[in-house]
């Protein structure tokens, strides 16, 4: 029987090299695919992947399963590292076009990893379009609230409210037994 991601992360926190290797083998290929699409450069994606897993090795004890699934934590770490790289590379504030965002961050193409991802995708589909779009720009595209407000030509407060409401609704849907997501 395969160890769960949560058990692997616990093992990594205890410095179990085998647990780290298993987690890496399980998620690195898909994560690398995401990073290549996000960064559009294989070398940068390889570097960010290595940095993300180094962070996981050093900070596995900080994972809190009450805050979400392990894959979400792993993707968040990689996305954060990728976003940092993109921001360092592009200080000009250029925001991608609608077509580029759709191609780079298509939810249905990226959130098919496991049962938790399927639940997340279904929950995202239940959000109002304004909330979902704003949340995806912040989370998957790594845009700041100001960048989203400029891109959507929406007040900053509205952007923040949409993200907060979307996160609260997602949390409510995913915290239960899944029945609200499946409706």
Characterize the structure shown:
By secondary structure, the protein is mostly helical. The chain has two domains: 1-91, RNA polymerase sigma factor, region 2, helix turn helix motif (Rna Polymerase Sigma Factor, Chain: A, Orthogonal Bundle); 96-183, Arc Repressor Mutant, subunit A, CATH 1.10.10.10. It has eleven helices and no strands. The protein has helices spanning 5-13, 17-39, 42-59, 70-89, 98-104, 107-110, 115-126, 129-139, 145-152, 156-175, 179-182. Helix 2 runs antiparallel to helix 3, helix 8 crosses helix 10 and helix 9 crosses helix 10 (156-175). The longest helix has 23 residues, at 17-39. The radius of gyration is 17 Å and the shape is globular. The model has no long low-confidence stretch (mean pLDDT 81).
């Amino acid at each position: 029987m395969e160890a769960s991601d949560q058990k692997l992360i616990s093992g990594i926190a205890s410095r179990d090299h085998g647990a780290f290797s298993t987690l890496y083998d399980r998620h690195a290929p898909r994560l690398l695919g995401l990073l290549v699409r996000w960064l559009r450069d294989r070398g940068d994606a390889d570097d960010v992947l290595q940095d993300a897993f180094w962070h996981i090795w050093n900070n596995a004890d900080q994972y809190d399963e009450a805050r979400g699934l392990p894959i979400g934590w792993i993707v968040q770490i990689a996305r954060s590292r990728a976003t940092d790289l993109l921001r360092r590379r592009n200080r000009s504030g250029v925001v991608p076009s609608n077509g580029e965002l759709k191609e780079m961050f298509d939810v249905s193409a990226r959130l098919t990893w496991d049962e938790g991802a399927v639940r997340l995708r279904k929950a995202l589909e239940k959000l109002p379009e304004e909330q979902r779009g704003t949340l995806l720009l912040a989370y998957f595209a790594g845009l700041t609230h100001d960048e989203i407000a400029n891109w959507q030509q929406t007040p900053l407060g509205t952007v923040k409210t949409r993200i907060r409401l979307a996160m609260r609704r997602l949390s409510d849907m995913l915290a239960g037994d899944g029945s609200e997501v499946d409706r």
